[in-house]
Amino acid sequence: MSSQHPNYNFTYPIITFAPAMHIKPTPLQHINEPLFREKGVEVWLKRDDLTHPDISGNKWRKLKYNLVEAKEEGLSTLLTFGGPYSNHIHALAAAGKLFGFKTIGIIRGEPSEEPTDTLQNAAKNGMRILFMDRAQYRLKNEPESIESLHVQLGEFYMVPEGGTNIYALQGCIEMVNEIKTDYDYICLGCGTGGTLAGVVAGLYGKKKALGFSSLKGKDTLTSSITELVQDFTDKTFDNLQITFDYHFGGYAKVNDELIDFIKAFKQNHLTQLEPVYTGKMIYGLYDMIKNDQFPRGTKIVAIHTGGLQGLCGYKKEFENEIQN
Ligand SMILES: Cc1ncc(COP(=O)(O)O)c(C=O)c1O
After folding, report:
1. Which helix (H) or strand (E) holds 149?
2. Is the CB of 307 inside a 6 Å radius of any atom of ligand 1?
3. Ligand 1 pocket, 162 CB below 6 A?
4. Is 57 in the pocket of ligand 1 (CB under 6 A)?
5. What band does 19 get if pLDDT is binned at 50, 70 and 90?
6. 272 lines ligand 1 (CB under 6 A)
7. Distance, C-alpha 234 to centroid of its chain
8. What is the mean pLDDT of residues 2-8?
């Protein structure tokens, strides 16, 4: 892990744990594009990928209060779930190492002969990696399944897959509160919708939250976000919008157009995106602006939710972008 990072300040001892997770606001990068000028729209990218090299973007935000809660409950082991390329597994392993927790990652599927870079890095950070077959994995949140993990592994604080729960919302609200410029929309990529739920809770009915789903399924996302927001705020808000037009065929699916877009964006704006969430979201935002979906004068803050380690799942497509 680099300690050269501009927003990186972890010199606090573990005993002052919550302040140790306090970071400087991540910067807003103004995106200078001829298309945006032509359409009279302004776009900033909130560089939340700069929270931490390994615990980047929404992972930092979602883990922060989960770690505080684990400490408060006196639990020293964190257990979570994820796929073999999961940004969440990567981040939780790094956070465990940084803040003095043991970590266990329950990975979906069977072990492969050559573990992914994500799993190798997680193991290097001390994570105990265990595999769970897909049928069992689907039932992982059932009480019997959790109980059997406790019997096998002892006491742990369970962080759900993707880190989405009520504590995650609290961290994501801080991300919203950091934005001091005037804006009309916050845009971000979504999977489980936990980050977007935190943004909606943070906006508290003001402005608009626009999510770009990286998954095909429409049925449950809006309702699960609404439920999370309700649990947290006791309110429902109508400033949430989700588009399902830019998933490129579904979770982790990519095509040449998306890959070329991400490369061009890096060339033009010196900022790396990844293809699972941030690439699709920014692609979608450009497309919506091109198609006059925002009135002239609209000001948009798009959140770079990090996750660049996920590029390791696209070595062929991004061989020049992946730094070893
Ligand atoms: C980089 C990145 N952006 C966005 C998301 C979506 O977050 P959420 O599951 O809270 O919708 C994820 C989820 O894992 C992610 O890794």
Report:
1. helix 143-153
2. yes
3. yes
4. yes
5. low
6. no
7. 24
8. 31
Nearest partner of 276 among 233, 306, 321, 316, judged by Cα: 306
Beta bridge partners of 36: none
Q: Average pLDDT for residues 87-104, to the nearest whole number? A: 97
State if residue 86 touches ligand 1 by the CB under 6 angstroms criterion.
Answer: no
% of the chain with per-residue pLDDT over 70 = 93
pLDDT at 124 (0 to 100): 97
Where in the chain are the domains?
A: 14-54+172-314, 59-163
Atom of ligand 1 nearest to the CA of 189: 4
Mean pLDDT, residues 260-279: 97
The topology (CATH level 3) of 14-54+172-314 is Rossmann fold (3.40.50)
pLDDT at 6: 33
How is domain 59-163 classified at the architecture level of CATH? 3-Layer(aba) Sandwich (3.40)
Ligand 1 mean position, distance from CA 269 (Å):
22
Q: Whose CA is nearest to atom 1 of ligand 1?
A: 307
Decide if pLDDT at 235 tops 80.
Answer: yes
The pLDDT, as a whole number, for residue 9 is: 34
The region, left, alpha or beta by phi > 0 then psi within -120 to 50, assigned to residue 45 is beta
Task: Give Cα separations from 65 to 19, 22, 68 (angstroms).
Answer: 11, 11, 5
